[in-house]
Amino acid sequence: MKIICKKSNLVKALGIVTKAVSPVSTLGITKGVLIKTEGDLKISLSATDIQLAITTGVSAIVNEEGAVVVDARMFSDFIRNLPEEDVVLMTDEKNILSIRTETTDNEIQGIEESEFPRIEGAEEGKKIKVEKAALREMIEGVCFAASTDESRGVITGVLFELEEGNMALVALDGYRVAIRRDYREELKEEKLTAVIPAKMLREAGKILADAGTEEAEATLEIGENRAVLETEDTVVRMNLLNGDYIKYKEVLPKEFSVKFVARREELLNAVELAGILKAEDGKSSFVRFSITDDSLIVSSRSNAGRGKETVAIDKEGEDLEIGFDARFLKEALRAAGEESVVLEFGTSISPAVMRALEGDAFTYLILPVRLSTVNI
User: Fold this and answer.
1) Same fold for the domain at 2-115 and the one at 126-248?
2) Of 229, 169, 166, whose CA–CA distance to 194 is shortest?
3) Engineering a disulfide at 141: which of 58, 147, 301, 335 sits with its beta carbon 3.0 to 4.6 angstroms away?
4) Does residue 375 surpass a pLDDT of 80?
5) Residue 175 CB: number of other CB atoms within 10 A?
6) What's the CATH fold of domain 252-374?
7) What strands lie across the sheet with 340-345, from one edge to the other?
8) Can you give the residue ranges of every domain in the chain?
9) Residue 215 has pLDDT above 60, yes or no
10) What tens digit of pLDDT does each residue of 105-149 get?
11) Strand order in the sheet with 61-64
12) pLDDT in tens, 293-312
């Protein structure tokens, strides 16, 4: 193999594919990146941790065809530290990869392509096209709420639903539920359901931001065991989670005793300030909402001090005192992205719901904490 390409193109491509490289895997080959020629003007870089696989293309001049697998971290370090010059990559019969510029000459011992795990497709599943920006916004709007406890099984994933043009992503962890929705008229005849691991989907969302133009569409193909996300020059393959997802619609409250509208940024700033004070464990922070006619007092206290912020609101219903984990509120408010949000409450011990002021683009449910147990 002998190819010539720009350093900047290699750096960008490695930033994408190394998201699939496992830093803790005991299977050495999953720490490698496959470099392969694809015709006269392109090479591909691929990496996989078996559950997640990413392939992306790089423009190049191909003088000799070939392929080699090298250590992903070592290759990335070499490329990142090269001068801003054209890079020549060459292999010999012993699979030694030479990395050269006008002023540098380095080598990495590689292995044959046949040693690299086979990357499977989506078993000819259903394909849909979605604007990259819209899909990325939905992914970023829910992944934070998925459980990070691997023993929790299917709720470490994000539920993807499509029916009658209504597309939804749902994540939950037992303390909160995050839902993002989008209506697609062109997809009203399609019906899909799948649970994609949140870690993988989060990386896919980052790739949507990195790869190609913002206006372009992405293709999502969902099969029985795999989902494949494809942009202009990058393909992400993700193994699906098995099992029945929690019936999340049944946990959404249908009645409320009080609701208010607040400017999102003002409310987020108040929660961030009040949440600076940590609980006795030094990690958690809790805030109290004191909801009255025209204002919301966001307060907290601990052995380290106390804080109180006032936010103007437009309220309907009864006054209420209720407590929350500050992190859950902050993550939902950051993800909402709207100028104003609606918060709805039942009692001091029932879930609160955050919604969009207009439409149903998002719904965030958050369980409260008992004020008596967290002493705020």
Assistant:
1) yes
2) 169
3) 335
4) no
5) 15
6) DNA Polymerase III; Chain A, domain 2 (3.10.150)
7) 191-197, 157-163, 166-172, 176-183, 362-366, 352-356, 340-345, 258-263, 314-317
8) 2-115, 126-248, 252-374
9) no
10) 999 999 999 999 988 766 677 889 999 999 999 999 999 999 999
11) 61-64, 2-6, 86-91, 96-100, 105-109
12) 889 999 998 888 899 999 99
* Domain at 126-248, CATH from 2.60.40.1930, 3.20.20.80, 3.40.50.1000, 3.10.150.10: 3.10.150.10
Burial 36-54 (b: 16+ CB within 10 A, else e): bbeeeebbbbbbbbebbbb
d(CA 127, CA 63): 36
Band of residue 25 on the pLDDT scale cut at 50, 70, 90: low
Q: Determine the CATH number of domain 2-115.
A: 3.10.150.10
Instruction: Determine the distance from the C-alpha atom of residue 221 to the mean position of all C-alpha atoms in its chain, rounded to a whole number.
Output: 18
- CA-CA-CA-CA dihedral for 259, 137, 192, 248, to nearest 10: -30
pLDDT range class, residue 374, cuts 50, 70, 90:
confident
